[in-house]
Amino acid sequence: MIPLSGPDITQREKDLVMEVLDSGILGLGPKMKQFEQMMADYVGVKHAISCNSGTSGLHMLIAAMGIGEGDEVITTSFSFVASANCILFERAVPVFVDIDEKTYNLDVTQIEAKITPKTKAILPVHVFGQPANMDEIRVLAKQYGLWVIEDSCEAIGGEWNGERVGGLGDAGVFAFYPNKQMTTGEGGIIVTNNDEIAELCHSIRNQGRGEDGLWLSHVRLGYNFRMDELSAALGVAQLERIDEILAKRDRVAAMYTERLQGVAEVIVPHVEDNVKMSWFVYVIRFAEDVDRDLVMERLSKRGIGCRPYFTPIHLQPFYVERFGYKRGDFPVTERVADKTLAIPFFNNLTEAEVEAVVAAIKEEIANAKEPVVK
Q1: Considering 31, 120, 180, 276, which one is annotated as catalytic?
Q2: Do the beta carbons of residue 141 and residue 291 sit within 8 Å?
Q3: How far apart are CA 272 and CA 274, in angstroms?
Q4: Can you tell me the distance from the alpha carbon of 87 to that of 75, in angstroms, rounded to the nearest whole number?
Q5: By the 8 A CB rule, do 252 and 279 touch?
Q6: Distance between CA atoms of residues 40 and 42, nearest Å
Q7: CA-to-CA distance for 194 and 167, rounded, in angstroms?
Q8: How far apart are alpha carbons 8 and 182 in whole angstroms?
Q9: What are residue 59's DSSP bridge partners?
Q10: pLDDT averaged per 10 residues in sequence order, the chain, 374 residues
Q11: What count of Cα atoms within 13 Å lies in the side-chain half-sphere of residue 97?
Q12: Does the global pTM surpass 0.90?
């Protein structure tokens, strides 16, 4: 078995978790505050507000920005469903834009046409760890008076023109699920320079407790979105090692690219010249005459982890039923999604394992060619 992903846990992580257990303080304690300060410093912002998932972080930002019923948020369908669900949580409407065929990020040339009087925000997703075109997005946001919410859940350490993602819009969110670059088990964090947003998110994550911190004093609708001390301890240890972690992932990505870029039926990930990629997953794209699903099935039978990344949000059954989306609505997104496949990718993947995966892909491509229609 070569799994799709796996965390990178050292003795340091174990020691800090045990330190929390020995302290007897398992929630709202010093490790959470330490992790938040470290993350704010890392991104280069004033505030970091930890939470129990990236999804919760995105939800809180939608709520804190006053985005509500009937409002519209421009975003991408080529993403994990949470980046659109967070808009629906507050009864607003996600408005999808097609993607750039090279980067798989929002096609910024199509955003302006989707802006209406109901538009309140743009929510770019830094897909697979490649920063979106934040220059153009910020220009449009300023022109039309819109919020910019960065879904940086897949992109910690990524940079756009030398600036770290998460701090490029009004606020950003990182996520730390076990398949991410760094993990807290479950968890996420909001980063922002906006004092009011930070204050509201502190309250919303803790059942709407007021800014005065009085016990059982709740001034707004809130949620239990807090991060626990054990997760924060993991986060501290992982963030201490973030440069090492990202370097390991760079190494694995480079091995794959070197071995796959000469395979005619495979398109390797494209990385823009002005970005620093933060490798979340390694996603290849097959040529049109290759049956992606058959390759995936056969690789899985060989014990090689792989998944389609991503199935478009607008074609998810719930979105089809609610909004009436159909194939053809976002042709580039659909064309890319039909042929992309995430292959095993994690910090400590060995060269031998990379060789085995690449060899298997080459073999299975030969067995998965679709007949040419004349």
Answers
A1: 180
A2: no
A3: 6
A4: 10
A5: yes
A6: 5
A7: 10
A8: 8
A9: none
A10: 96 98 95 98 98 98 98 98 98 98 98 98 98 98 98 98 98 97 98 98 95 84 97 98 98 98 96 97 97 97 97 98 98 98 98 98 88 51
A11: 23
A12: yes
Question: Using N-to-C axis directions, what is the helix angle for 11-23 and 229-240, rounded to 10°?
Answer: 150
- Beta strand pairing call for 163-164 and 282-286: unpaired
Cβ atoms of residues 159 and 275 within 8 Å: yes
How many whole angstroms separate alpha carbon 93 and alpha carbon 368?
39
| The CA-based dihedral angle spanning residues 132, 350, 247, 38, taken in that order and rounded to the nearest 10 degrees | 90
Q: What is the 3-state secondary structure (H, E, C) of the chain?
A: CECCCCCCCCHHHHHHHHHHHHHCCCECCHHHHHHHHHHHHHHCCCEEEEECCHHHHHHHHHHHCCCCCCCEEEEECCCCCHHHHHHHHCCCEEEEECECCCCCCECHHHCHHHCCCCEEEECCECHHHCCCCHHHHHHHHHHHCCEEEEECCCCCCCEECCEECCCCCCEEEEECCCCCCCCCCCCEEEEECCHHHHHHHHHHCECCECCCCCCCCECCCCCECCCEHHHHHHHHHHHHCHHHHHHHHHHHHHHHHHHHCCCCCEECCCCCCCEECCCCCEEEEECCCECHHHHHHHHHHCCECCECCCCCHHHCHHHHHHHCCCCCCCHHHHHHHCCEEEECCCCCCCHHHHHHHHHHHHHHHHCCECCCCC
**What is residue 252's predicted lDDT score, i.e. its pLDDT?**
98
Q: Which two tokens stand for residue 328?
A: 């053809």
114 noted as active-site residue: no
How far, CA to CA in Å, does 106 sit from each of 78, 116, 249?
A: 8, 18, 24
